[in-house]
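Record 1 of the preview.
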Amino acid sequence: MADGVKNSGKFLKDVVSEMKRVSWPTRKELTRYTWVVLGTVAFITVFFAIIDYGISWLVRVLLG
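->
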């Protein structure tokens, strides 16, 4: 049990140490990346909606 607690403490210290080394994006970069993600999601949503509509229309035409 004591080894588990000791290992947990070392793990948390290592996590804090690694988080200090992380290169965090600036606010401007983060805003830009967010807009890119939202734009990509919107594009893919519209794309698949059109594909879905097209396939539904084709199935209706074929099945009469």
